[in-house]
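Students often ask why we bother encoding 3D structure as a string. The short answer is that it lets us treat folding as translation between two languages. Here is a chain of 159 residues written in the first language.
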Amino acid sequence: MGVQVFPGKFTVEQEQDFTVFIIGMRINKWWAVHKWLPVLIAMPPMIKELYVNKDLGCLSLENFFSFRTTLMVQYWKSEQDLLTYARNAQHLKAWKNFNLKVGNNDAVGIYHEMYNVTESNFECFYGNMPTFGLAKAFGQEPVKASTRTARQRLRKGAH
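And here it is in the second language, the structure alphabet:
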């Protein structure tokens, strides 16, 4: 069964601030499987926890993989929800294991970036797409005359 594609043009009309979190890893030494594999397999239990417990504040996420690097974009209700999750048992266990098994070894790298986004400082457009990204987190709305251009979508909160 395929993913449903929504023909047409869509945007997101979100009127609350939110947080975008980008997290991932990079395999620097392919042959050091004993270093990078534990990092790779630590993420699925946390993702399952976020999907099952929506009250934690993670609204949605997208995964991307390239030759050496994984990248996950997460959409959170708030910075506070994300920081609270960073202190929960599942994440702390993964962080402790990373530091024990990898530490400063250069076989595998990890990274994250966090952005707090205000209602009037983002815009998005989806054409002939499945529900994706912010639209998956907040719901998509058909583009209308007042949201036809990127400039109009950015100015939505400036009245």
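Translate back mentally: The beta strands are 6-11, 18-27, 58-65, 69-76, 108-117, 126-129, 141-142. Keep this in mind for the problem set.
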